[in-house]
Amino acid sequence: MARTKIKELLVGDFLDTKVTIKGWVRTFRNNQFIALNDGSTIENIQVVVDFENTEPSLLKRLTTSACISVEGKITASQGKGQKVEMIAEKLEILGDSDAEAYPLQPKKHSLEFLREIAHLRFRTNTFSAVFRVRNALSYAIHKFFQERGFVYIHSPIITGSDAEGAGEMFKVTTLDPKTVSLLDTGGVDYSVDFFEKETHLTVSGQLEAELAALALGDVYTFGPTFRAENSNTSRHLAEFWMIEPECAFNDLEDNMDLAESLLKYCIKYALDECAEDIQFLNSRLAEEEKSKPQLERAEMGLLEKLQFCLDHSFERLTYSEAIEVLKNSTPNKKKKFKYLIEEWGADLQSEHERYLVEKHFKKPVILTDYPKEIKAFYMRQNDDGKTVRAMDILFPGIGEIVGGSQREERLEKLIERMEQMDVPVEELSWYLDTRRFGTCPHAGFGLGFERLVLFVTGMTNIRDVIPFPRTPGNAEF
Ligand code: 4AD
Ligand code: MG
To answer: What is the whole-number distance in angstroms between the Cα of residue 421 and the centre of ligand 2?
Structure first.
């Protein structure tokens, strides 16, 4: 008999029908009640075993995490907590699980502990919920763009350029460090390397997306990106997924509108499609908040926060306006910020971003028109000679979730800025060709996928929303 997924069983009309289900034992109570989970939903189904007529040796093997297949009839449940249950008729063990050795006990484990056994954490309620939500969000992203006629572009993972000019890249090489040949200048001779030049893992697909946008109109990328920045924080990964739309003919206003609707669309999609999972994560977070001192507790629960985000438009203001707010803020005056805001031009730290979002405006914020010194070379220069058409979207509990800009489409201005910033003009000649041949105003942004998943799941550490996190000192599994 083909297997029926538990999710279907719980919503469909299966009363009095005979089905086969397969899954992993969560608990086995009174030698009679199995709570079975197959990953299709956070809910378990209760399987009732006729223990008097079952081999004791078989009953003994119904341990936590054993994998079983059961055939039986679905009936209305006698007990509390579930509408239907299965009366087992045929029970088969597919895979035993040694209860003594199994690291996950049916009790609460810390997220830190679960991170060490990331290969098994899928089997917990929390992580199965997180990864179903992550799945729904990635589908929502494609759905959003596909419904609007965007073309999905696969930008390369291995590149010969540094899109952000930040120099935080992982090298890609087949050279053996023990026998590597050096040039007279002391540098490594990459001409004998696999690609016959120096290559890296991409930090962003933006430059390639721009090439595509200036022919296809509206495009987006959605893929892994890599940063060798040594930031051991709860918001940074060395390998993370990024969504980068790029649109010909868009200006910064259009760019902000697109980003705001994308974020709202994804949040709404997850709320609609993953209602039980988010409900579960909402309770999980509420429970966790209880253990914090009153002052540190979040003002809103997860569900409330997500709904709030859907119901309100994001606050839009310029960097210069934000600096005024920060300069006059209580934590700045009372010297509570680690980095005090003293003058225009200061780079904003996450403490400042979070103050603006969580304390001052109390909603998502879009900051625009940053000083050109703290932004990348490709951003469109404003007439004031000081600022660029940049935008960052800041979210409560997260800080920066989106970074983007209108691009500098004027060839001379772009070259001038590249030279000022020591970006190699010759090497990026292919990029400049878009400005040489039929340039046009265009804009785009990058959305950090894990930061979106963090926001929607209410998890607090980015390591807990990607199956196998890569961070400084950690590339386990
Ligand atoms: O602000 P970033 O560096 O922008 C770019 O890479 C542009 N090329 C995007 C574009 O305009 N097409 O990164 C974009 C977003 C950030 O806002 C953040 O959400 C996420 O990517 N991000 C990270 N997420 C996890 N770990 C890291 N180390 C991240 N670095 C950036
Ligand atoms: Mg940024």
So the answer is: 17
